[in-house]
Amino acid sequence: MNEAEADEPIEARLRRGLGLRSIVLVGLMGAGKSTVGRRLASRLGLLFKDADNEIEAAAGLTIPDIFSIYGEPSFRDGEERVIARLLRAGPLVLATGGGAFLRETTRERIRERGVSVWLKADLDVLMRRVRKRGNRPLLQTEDPEETMRALMEIRHPVYAEADVVVVSRDVAHDRVVEDVMESLVSFLDPPPALAAQ
């Protein structure tokens, strides 16, 4: 990186590094994908899309209704199609549902057309956040915390395939947005010493 690039705002460096690729946020429900994604898109002057909202608009149903009427497999098929369509429309910031990244075809599409960011949060942080909203179909169980723990066990190894990992913790959302931007710039434009390794 030359001196002019070092003085360039992080937003400009990130936009240049992304090119036509999208930023795709992955992680469990409650990790902050939508909230962080909206603010990140605003900072970068990119369009923000929430895959869950797009699925609901395409289906004309809420996600809980899709789950109850058609079941999770049908929901996942629709989710895959919607994410593929959104990625073709990039560059944008895309918040995905918690299970989207588990599909191999979706991970491949994200690798081709985007940079994935895992917003990783501790169990207590996730539970505090999801308890504020009762519309999480996968948590409609006798023991939502145990269900979340089981989801973490299954999903964390897959989320770990993301290009970048950022801890989503109980700080101001703008702090997490900064962490995401700094991590993305390091990933897209590593210092020469790291790039040579």
List the helices and strands and how they pair.
Elements: H1 3-7, H2 10-18, E1 22-26, H3 33-44, E2 47-50, H4 51-59, H5 63-70, H6 72-88, E3 92-95, H7 104-113, E4 114-120, H8 123-130, H9 144-159, E5 164-167, H10 173-188, H11 192-195
Binding site for substrate: 52, 76, 98, 155
Catalytic activity: shikimate + ATP = 3-phosphoshikimate + ADP + H(+)
Main location: cytoplasm
Radius of gyration (Å): 17 Å
The chain-level mean pLDDT equals 88
Strand content: 5-15%
Please report the distance between the alpha carbons of the first and last residues: 16 Å
- How many strands, what sense, and barrel or not for the largest sheet? 5 strands, parallel
Binding site for ATP: 30-35, 136
Binding site for Mg(2+): 34
Organism: Methylobacterium persicinum
Binding site for substrate: 52, 76, 98, 155
List its traits:
197 residues; alpha/beta; 5-stranded parallel β-sheet; 11 helices; 5 strands; globular; Shikimate kinase; ATP-binding; transferase; kinase activity
What does this structure look like?
It is built from eleven helices and five strands; from the N terminus they run ααβαβαααβαβααβαα. It is globular and about 55 Å long. α2 (10-18) crosses α10 (173-188), α3 packs across α10 and α5 packs across α6. By secondary structure, the protein is an alpha/beta fold. The two termini are 16 Å apart. The protein has helices at residues 3-7, 10-18, 33-44, 51-59, 63-70, 72-88, 104-113, 123-130, 144-159, 173-188, 192-195; strands at 22-26, 47-50, 92-95, 114-120, 164-167.
